[in-house]
Amino acid sequence: DSGVTQTPKHLITATGQRVTLRCSPRSGDLSVYWYQQSLDQGLQFLIQYYNGEERAKGNILERFSAQQFPDLHSELNLSSLELGDSALYFCASSHPVAGSLRAKNIQYFGAGTRLSVL
Amino acid sequence: DQQVKQNSPSLSVQEGRISILNCDYTNSMFDYFLWYKKYPAEGPTFLISISSIKDKNEDGRFTVFLNKSAKHLSLHIVPSQPGDSAVYFCAASRLEMNRDDKIIFGKGTRLHILP
Known about the structure:
The complex is a heterodimer of chains A (118) and B (115).
Chain A: E1 5-7, E2 10-13, E3 19-24, E4 31-37, E5 44-50, E6 53-57, E7 64-68, E8 74-78, E9 87-94, H1 101-104, E10 108-109, E11 113-117
Parallel strand pairs in A: 2-11
Antiparallel strand pairs in A: 1-3, 3-8, 4-5, 4-9, 5-6, 7-8, 9-10, 9-11
Chain B: E1 4-5, E2 10-14, E3 19-25, E4 32-38, E5 45-51, E6 56-59, E7 62-67, E8 72-77, E9 86-93, E10 104-105, E11 109-114
Parallel strand pairs in B: 2-11
Antiparallel strand pairs in B: 1-3, 3-8, 4-5, 4-9, 6-7, 7-8, 9-10, 9-11
């Protein structure tokens, strides 16, 4: 158990709809990352939050948005869903530990949310 | 543009033999490399890492080798065990990450350990 919790595990919805994926990071972790894994694709970085603020952006579509709340949990909102948005969405967290440069680059992943858009 | 490439989508190795998973990167700014292992229905889990000041890092049955001049790293698993059957992701980053820096993952290699 990585300590990162993602809900729901599975989500089935229709094109044009909007969904929200939720992530609770490991206790004490300040950074939250969102990734998308489509069929035969690697982990595509979407966005990172650090202590409530957006830190870095990757290949995130304009139809997608995210936020990190004061309690450090994060939500990824996907709107106007298309068939191609069907994928596994992973959340990861990490903690910048002073004096331990390596540790802050290690991310702990949740089990993912499998999104199916029909 | 794929900055981290794992050119073998899958690999089959006999139990007890050595498994070698390869990874190439293109960005010379990367100086920290990680391997993650992923079982079905689970998220990736951190396995081993190496910084560019080293050319080898060992942890039990797992050894990662880094060839900076070739921009190539490899993960060796010796001896391979059935529980090693999983997808392995190579990832690269800068050790001191700035605001816009990211960890870049490869597409993964599926390792099958044969009985």
